[in-house]
Amino acid sequence: MKTGITRYTIKKTIKTFFLVIAISTIPLSKTNAQFEIQKAAVNDTIELYLINSYTGTIQWQISSDNNIFSDIPGATSNPSDVVVTASPNNFWFYRAVITDNLCPNDPYTFSFSTYIEVVSSPEDIQRGDWYLGGYVFYKDTAGNGLIAPYYDQTSSNVEFGCYGTFTLGAYSTTDGVSNTNAFVTECSSSIAAKICDTLDLNGFDDWYLPAIDELDTLSNNASYAGGYFGMWYWSSTEYSDFYTMSASFYQDITGPIDKGVELPVRCIRSFTSSPHYKIRREVTILYQPETVFIVEQPVSSVNCPGDTVTLSVTATGGGISYQWIKGGLSIPGANSNTFTMSNLINTQAGIFYCRVANGCRILFSDNAEVKVIQLTADAGQDTLICHGEELQLNATFNTNHPLNSGSVDYLWSPGNSLSSATIAQPIAVPDSITTYHLSVTDEIGCVAHDSVTVDVHNTFSDEQICLVSVDTITWKNKITWKKTAGVGTEYYLIYRETGTDYYQQIGHVEANLIPEYIDILSQPESHGDKYKITSLDTCGNESDINLCFYHKTINMGIGANGSTMGLTWDYYEDESGMFIPDKYYIFRGTNPWNMTVLDSVSGSFNSYNDINVFDVYYYMVGVKKEEGCDSAVPLSKEAFSNKKDNRDYIESAEAYRYDAGKILISPNPMNSTAKLVIPNLSLCQLHENNCQIKISDLTGKVARIITNNELKDLQINSASNLQINLERGNLMPGIYFIELNTERIYIGKLIIE
Question: Which of the residues 220, 256, 528, 642 has the least number of beta carbons within 10 Å of its own beta carbon?
């Protein structure tokens, strides 16, 4: 509520007349109050107020010459109240000093100064002085006065309000305070009165709408309080329900005006000589260095290779510069509050921080660690398994940050032949060679890949016989084939036909040995034989014998018609039809070991006549396979029939000489020792012929020679047979031929395990 100087009543006089309102412009007689000299009386209080926000502590200072300032004791708050004292030159200048200890490079900031003119007492205040928030436009001899601001309180005209309502207590012609309070209390729609009641201007909030006499005084002293733009102004003196008194500044008259008319508003306030007043003086600072603060620190992160990471620091302050640092070294070009790294690799990992600086100080952010997960996966070694066999895969992983990676998820592909596609050690049962691709994903989302190939071994089913022949050393059937490498074969199984299309296994050969087999139980002198071969792999699986083509040996017979020897033989048979002999070669010799080619016939024929034969000869038939068989098998291009001699047709005792005798060996195969038995040969005969035993391997290389004298020590007493103990000695495992040449030849085959 407002407080006035005096209060009195006026006699209600109802006058009804209408005024035609004209708007005119009167030039300002006063300038902006900021350029007026604020006057204050001794013992008044100056409220010093820095209107800017600031950082640090404040100290108000005073000067009489605006040059040399000193601190005002106790004036360290904003605002601060300072009691006005007498000045040596009637002026005081005030300013604020801001001290920011957080800005050590530039800690002090000074405001602009404000000043007052000091008078001894309010009685010294004159009309036109700037005092207590406005211009003094009235002052009596007792020191009381009225003050008006230097501009209207409305930018455009407004209605008075309270139309049709008579407000009790608002009829004073001299007390605008009581009138304003009455309107605010009893008629809230009073627009003009409310504007002044709520006005807070120049440090004062006790403004009110002037009564008609006060408004008239302001009109008469307009040149002291500022210019006016309106002709008529509202007063707070009520006239009737529909009229309120107003005054014309232009015509210097007063009178009632309809409350619905729009007029400007000029508020006033009053002062007396007795109290001391508080005068607000505001100052500003142009610029205070704003010290830098880090309000948000960079954050550590865990990333996957290829990710993008952005480090960020948030700081407040002015003129801030940034520099990101890694390992104590500045990162070129990293000069903003964010630093981004794309397509991360492990070498980009490390400890980062940011230097944040401005003109006040330098700060360093917290460390932020950028981790780059190096996740690796291992699906295991490539493996070969047998068909139908199961295999347990074994996935492992490694990470350079185990705590961050945590547990991992596994995913195998393809998963249709696995017991589970999402565990580390699934059981795999592939039907054929399969590459399993492994993905390992950790808790961060980093992924590592690997693969493992499981080769499924299916028994090799295309191993075929190359040639079958009668061995010209043992005169037993020999089977030769080409080895196929890298197909998992462990043994070759040899089969002989023992009934129509029925084959029985007769032996085996390890895959790492020479690819041939001698059927020591065969009887090539009596008949031919059919043979097949199968493969037995490391898994114990055997190839299908029905997929192998048989080969049949050549069986030759001999007859005679006088001096003509007639040879007939079976055709060589290769069931596959891949080998059809182009020719059959006729071999003849005076003994089985010196036969040479006598002649040849077309492969279409299977007979030959040797004419004019009067001596004993040995015969056999052979064929040639030009491409041969395995290079490890000597003479593997030729296959021979059994041998036959014509002794039954030639009366000659000499023929018996060339019939080879047998050496019986037991046990055979041997391990460490064996007994050699040569029927119908005595040691005496052996010594008389000064003979020796020769032991050769399959290639013909002589492995050992036992001389005549050595045989004497090895002999076992026997009346009818020569028996010799044979020590294995340095003989390696394999097949050997033992030959004794006396008055006739004796041959035996030895197998050493």
Answer: 220
Around Cβ 218, how many Cβ atoms within 10 Å?
23
222 shares a domain with 117: no
Pairing of strands 745-752, 661-662: parallel
Rounded CA separation 633/511 (Å)? 14
Summarize pLDDT for 675-693 with one digit per residue, the tens. 888 876 665 565 556 678 8
Range of the domain at 410: 375-457
Give the ranges where 495-617 is alpha helix by DSSP (H).
none
Do 430 and 527 lie in one domain? The reply is no
Whether the Cβ atoms of residue 640 and residue 596 lie closer than 8 Å to each other = no
pTM of the model: 0.48
Task: Report DSSP state, residue 418.
Answer: B
- Cα Rg, the chain, nearest whole Å: 66
Contact 41, 119 (CB under 8 A): yes
In Å, what is the CA distance from 12 to each residue of 7, 9, 17, 445? 16, 9, 15, 91
Between 188 and 510, the higher pLDDT residue: 510
Instruction: In whole angstroms, give the CA distance from residue 613 to residue 590.
Output: 12
Q: How far apart are CA 109 and CA 58, in angstroms?
A: 10
For residue 492, pLDDT over 70 is answered with: yes
**Sorting pLDDT into bands at 50, 70 and 90, what band is 457?**
confident
In 10 A of CB 101, how many CB atoms? 10
Number of Cβ within a 10 Å radius of residue 67: 8
Residue 715 located in a structural domain: yes
Domain match, 423 and 471 both? no
The answer to whether 503 and 493 have CB atoms below 8 angstroms apart is no
Would 11 be classed as within a structural domain?
no
Phi and psi, residue 552, nearest 5°: -115, 135
Statement: residue 109 has pLDDT above 60 = yes
Domain boundary among 431, 457, 483: 457
Q: Please write the tens of the pLDDT for every residue from 345-380.
A: 999 999 999 999 999 999 999 999 999 999 999 999
Beta-sheet strands, E only, within 259-326: 262-263, 269-271, 278-283, 293-296, 301-303, 309-312, 314-316, 321-326
Give which of 339, 552, 649, 306 is closest to 446, Cα–Cα.
Answer: 306
CB atoms within 10 A of CB 628: 16
Return d(Cα 182, Cα 171) in angstroms, integer: 9
Q: Where are the alpha helices (DSSP H) in 316-444?
A: 402-405
Q: Which two tokens stand for residue 20?
A: 């035609």
| DSSP secondary structure letter of residue 733 | S
